[in-house]
Amino acid sequence: MTAAPLLVDIEGNVAVVTLNRPDRLNAFNQAMREALIAELGRLNRDDAIRAIVITGTGPRAFSAGQDLDEAGSLDWTQIAARHHVHQATYQAVRDLDKPCIAAINGLAAGQGFQVSLCTDWRIAAPDVRMGQPEVKVGLGSIVGSFFMSMYVGMTHNAQMSLSGDLITGQRAYEIGLLTELTPAGEDTLAVSLQRAKQLAALPPTAIRMTKERFRALTQPGFEEACIFGIRSQLECYAKGEPQETMQAFLQKRRDRQAARMEDKDGGTSR
Q1: 4, 80, 216, 249: least buried by Cβ within 10 Å?
Q2: 180 phi, psi to nearest 5 deg
Q3: Could you tell me the domains of the chain?
Q4: Alpha carbon distance 224, 50 (integer Å)
């Protein structure tokens, strides 16, 4: 039986939404995107919920980004439709009228990193890894670089977007991508829940109007980035770079899995 791609727990007036594909480092596939859009819409309509925390299952990852098994099989005719679903995923987070905190565990890369940048408050330990590795899989860093532009200047944005390198939570906090660092010895989710409860206690209309203003300030740029993102992906896929890079990565993963199975079989026979 396939596990649900999303888990939801309610703690008082706070909802904890957990990305739940730990065998794929909580990478986003179509089922997870659709589940997140639907669940955030439902929670936004529920007056009993006053704040939301988004996190990932297990210690290894908040989310590693797109599922490359899915992304690597795309052809150019599917790109626009898929990109619209990505846009709707980000919009579902942006449209929340309630405070939303990303409790970032392990790795937050690509689409996972971008979802975290749509939240109001990002909390992580100093040793997490975060960033925009799109260029390393043959894709332009378009929507992600827009999201980063809301928090950091061009120097840091260009460095991360053009290199595709990940940075630590400590560095992300220093340049403004994280709101808080988890204190030494404390659990990120527990710290995030405490912060969510503090925000949930504030007057909800004031919170809603403040968030509406932030959304209005950034919505035109977000929509323009999404339009350019479709053009970028069409050009990249037309050149064959994403397909080639992703398939090479997937082949290396298959080779590693085969090697582990061979070692296991050899150990058993001995």
Answers
A1: 216
A2: -140, 150
A3: 6-250 (3.90.226.10)
A4: 31
Number of Cα atoms under 13 Å in the Cβ half of residue 108: 31
Q: Is 181 left (phi over 0), alpha (psi -120 to 50) or beta?
A: beta
Beta carbons within 10 angstroms of residue 178's beta carbon:
26
Radius of gyration of the chain (CA): 19
155-186: per-residue pLDDT in tens? 999 999 999 999 999 999 999 999 999 998 99
pTM of the model: 0.91
Burial 197-210 (b: 16+ CB within 10 A, else e): bebbeeeeeebeee
What pLDDT digit, counting tens, does each position of 9-33 carry? 999 999 999 999 999 999 999 999 9
**Do the Cβ atoms of 68 and 27 come closer than 8 Å?**
yes
Give me the residue label for tokens 């860093």.
141
- Residue listed under structure tokens 């740029």: 221
Q: Is 78 exposed, middle or buried (0-12, 13-18, 19+ CB in 10 A)?
A: exposed
What distances in angstroms separate CA 269 from CA 27, 255, 259, 261, one per listed residue? 35, 21, 15, 12
